[in-house]
Amino acid sequence: MKDPLLELALINAAQQPIQMSAVEFAKRLRTSPMTASRRLKELEDGGLIARMLSGRSQAIIITEKGSNTLKEQYLAYKSIFESKPAIELNGIIESGLGEGRYYLSIRGYTKQFEERLGFNPYPGTLNVKLDDESVAARVRLDNLAPIYISSFKTSNRTYGGIKCYVASIGGIDGAVIVPDRSHYHNDVIETVAPVSIKKTLNVDNGDFVKVVVL
Fold first, then answer.
1. Angle formed at CA 165 by CA 141 and CA 136, multiple of 5 degrees
2. How much is the pLDDT for 83?
3. CB-side exposure of 33: number of CA atoms within 13 Å?
4. Is residue 73 in some structural domain?
5. Are both 191 and 158 inside the same structural domain?
6. What per-residue confidence (pLDDT) applies to 82?
7. Which residues contact residue 80 at a Cβ distance below 8 angstroms, ignoring those fewer than 6 apart?
8. Which domain holds residue 169?
9. pLDDT tens digits along 2-20
């Protein structure tokens, strides 16, 4: 059976409502009307489509969530078949929670950064709020093997591990980091470098920055 969300997108349901009966959709999916109806209900329950029923027909449109799902699938396939391995993430600089300065001054972390990434990070992360396309592209990080900064314990607490991906931040060599205990959603990435990225690039909150994961 064909992918039902993709089939709806191919008949323009991402741009406008389309009229289609379960029987017609079953023919497109090469399955039974009962299975086609079930697949449509699953998409609707998952928030990927919206439906307006009218007799035996129905108006179907792909929601924003459904469109984002399709974008993620597209970018995942694109990463498989394109020769260029780099992942480009674009966004604007925004203030963080202020925790990076503290954590990146702890020897248990800095020693591992030196050993595994080859630099001692400037004490503080640069946070980037990603645009919509980059939020979808970020899923490609899951296909990369990270450089892992291991968790460790001190006398009074445990510090979580960090996944690191070598990157260029506005042309500065550094890394995208994804702490195991991150407080951020997928639309924000944290970056580190051996220098203050803001000072080196002469940028501030609200300014655009390009991050290329290598």
1. 25
2. 54
3. 7
4. no
5. yes
6. 66
7. none
8. 84-213
9. 899 999 999 999 999 999 8
Same domain, 90 and 190: yes
Same domain, 202 and 153: yes
Dump pLDDT digits (tens) for 21-57.
Answer: 888 999 989 999 999 999 999 999 999 999 988 767 7
Residue 23 phi/psi, 5-degree rounding, is: -65, -45
Residues 49 and 132 in one domain: no
Cβ atoms 137, 152 nearer than 8 A: no
Q: Are 104 and 122 in contact (CB under 8 A)?
A: yes
Q: Give the mean pLDDT of the chain.
A: 90
For the chain, the distance separating the N- and C-terminal CA atoms, rounded to the nearest angstrom, is 37
| Cα dihedral 106→107→109→112 (10° resolution) | 170
Helix ranges (DSSP H) in 30-96: 33-45, 64-81
Residue 206 lies in a domain: yes
pTM of the complete model: 0.62
Cβ atoms of 5 and 43 closer than 8 Å: yes
DSSP H/E element including 212: strand 208-213
Q: What is the mean pLDDT of residues 107-121?
A: 94
Return the half-sphere exposure (C-beta side, CA atoms, 13 A cut-off) of residue 30.
3
The whole-number pLDDT of residue 143 equals 83
* Cβ burial, residue 130 (10 Å; 0-12/13-18/19+): buried
